Amino acid sequence: MKASPSEPLILNVDDTDAARYAKTRILQRAGFRVIDAESGGQALQLANEHMPDLVLLDTKLPDINGFEVCRQLKQDPHTAMVLVLQTSASYVSSPDKVRALDSGADNYLFEPIEPEELVANVRALLRLGRVERELRDMDRRKDEFLAILAHELRNPLGPIRNAVELLRSLDPHSSPAQENARRVILRQTDHMVRLVDDLLDVSRISQGKITLRRAEVELCGLLKSAVETAEPNIAARRHALTVKLPDHEIWVDGDSVRLTQVVGNLLNNAAKFTPPGGRIALAACLEGPEAVIRVTDNGIGIAPEQVGSIFDLFAQAGHSPDRVQDGLGIGLSLVRTLVNLHGGSVSVQSPGPGQGSTFEVRLPTLARTPAADETDCSAEVQAPPRAADTYRILVVDDNIDSAEIVAALLQFAGHEVHMAHDGAGAIAAALRLLPDVVFLDIGLPDMSGVEVAATLRRYPQLAKTVLVALTGYGQDKDRMGAMAAGFNHHLTKPVNMETLNDTVRTFMRPH
């Protein structure tokens, strides 16, 4: 049977001419394309040049043994996905097979091998390889879909949130009923933003792209910030929250944003799975060289058989009877990933269903003594922000609602604001107005915001203009692409009035 160019390519590696010839003929008669190698070095070279679908690899070779050849193939990113079927007439004990599989081999056969057995094993491995490639392709498409989904969801969320904040600013003395309605909209919008961020974090986890921005972090202050984030959910379900923190500082090496996310997820999880009117407790302390954070509730609890899987992606131990939908099952998986990245551990204990749960996070601490004038865990008093100066600002967004709301928020702060809704209009407006700041969407109908930014940077008269990307694309690669194109800053939709004004103040402050 003659092999067609579309048939799988097999690299047959054996230093014995007769054995190599026999296996090649068997595979060719089965319809495979076959190339030969008689040494380990030649096998590695041909594998890199031809990228075979499978390597049929004898263990005993004159230069490099088959175990090492297999290990090098699997460690090289270029050939890591090439299937390896290892064979041997010399190493025929179970430890030899274990050694081969530990080196990365996909299967191991003892010689002599019947022709039917060889062909069947090759076909079985190729089927598995095909399925694995399809799964990788599906995973790649899933990541692309999540990024697009996040962008499309953030676009309407931005105008909704900003419109509510603008209404509040225009009518600060509204009735309690109106203010309550606004708070509901803001709370639910923030909840949608958290769901979008969780979806993106799933994508980042699967690609190993979550990175930490480490610094010395004081844990007590961080926990108070996390409590403020979770308080609306806790209050909405009429839970009693107690917080017990030490009167001394606890310092850790970590990413304050991600650690706040960890504690916030645990508190929101406790609120979600505790029936209304329940009790939640947050406590922190030192145990030896570790900081220990515990979140305890008297909620629905966890069955013993589910404790081991509660941190798995999309896992949910159950639901509170009064809840129709309890989220995506992502939060606890993110908690475990983020804690592990910090060199810590997370665990859960529960007496059983209906008896509540205790989640415990352990983090390594820093041996740091605070200076005499530093505060302990008491909340810091923030100085009120100074009044913003007036600047000329250009807002560019093809979503007219989004552009108008952002412009209105900036106008309310006293700025002179102009709008454009496509790339060409943005360039023309920038050259005409010479704005101090440009808030620029990335997804424009005629050209990308990145191209617009690169064009603006070529004009000397715009050299001092601050370019801020305001976009629904919020992955690390999006931020890096924006900065490389000449942006000064990157904001992910939706943004509130405070963030917009803080951004203007930060970049326009005299240096």
TrEMBL record:
An MF annotation (GO) of this entry: phosphorelay sensor kinase activity
InterPro entries: CheY-like_superfamily (IPR011006), HATPase_C_sf (IPR036890), HATPase_dom (IPR003594), His_kinase_dom (IPR005467), HisK_dim/P_dom (IPR003661), HisK_dim/P_sf (IPR036097), Sig_transdc_His_kin-like_C (IPR004358), Sig_transdc_resp-reg_receiver (IPR001789)
The protein's enzyme class: transferase
Top-level taxonomy: Bacteria, Pseudomonadati, Pseudomonadota, Betaproteobacteria, Burkholderiales
Domain called Histidine kinase: residue spans: 148-367
Response regulatory domain sequence ranges: 9-126, 392-508
GO cellular component: plasma membrane
A Pfam cross-reference name: HATPase_c
Catalytic activity: ATP + protein L-histidine = ADP + protein N-phospho-L-histidine
Organism: Pseudoduganella flava
Membrane topology: Multi-pass membrane protein
Protein name: histidine kinase
UniProtKB keywords: Kinase, Membrane, Phosphoprotein, Transferase, Two-component regulatory system
Major site of localization recorded for this protein: membrane
Modified residues (4-aspartylphosphate): 58, 441
Source domain of life: Bacteria
Positions in coiled-coil regions: none
E.C. numbers: 2.7.13.3
Location of the protein in the cell: Cell inner membrane
